[in-house]
């Protein structure tokens, strides 16, 4: 999907969003699924950079959904992973704010 640049990253985000919706409605998404999503998309530095290069907005929303899953109790993440996700979130939010300020939106 990442070969499709901006749209590919958006489609990946949509799948994470759908996983969160499925977890909310069925409570049947295993912890292993959240671990795999986090490890593959965000905590793997090369993959996270590819997502960010293609679509930083989608990358930021993926991190947000992961932290939301953890906060709602759908994912029992260890403290180290939560810390790493929060660092990624902070980095992405900083870029988004800089981008908005540069465009006179803030």
Instruction: Describe the largest sheet.
Output: none
- Residue stretches low in confidence (pLDDT < 50, at least 5 long) are none
Tell me the number of strands. 0
Helical run tally? 5
Multimerization status: single chain
Describe the model:
This protein is mostly helical and 106 residues long. The chain has one domain. The chain is 79% helix and 0% strand. It contains five helices and no strands. The longest helix is centred in the last third of the chain and has 24 residues, at 79-102. The N and C termini lie far apart (32 Å).
Outline the fold blueprint.
Blueprint lengths: L4 H22 L4 H12 L2 H10 L1 H16 L7 H24 L4
Helix pairs in contact: 1-3, 1-4, 2-4, 3-4, 4-5
Task: Give the key terms.
106 residues; mainly alpha
Quick structural gist:
This protein is mostly helical. It contains 5 helices and no strands.
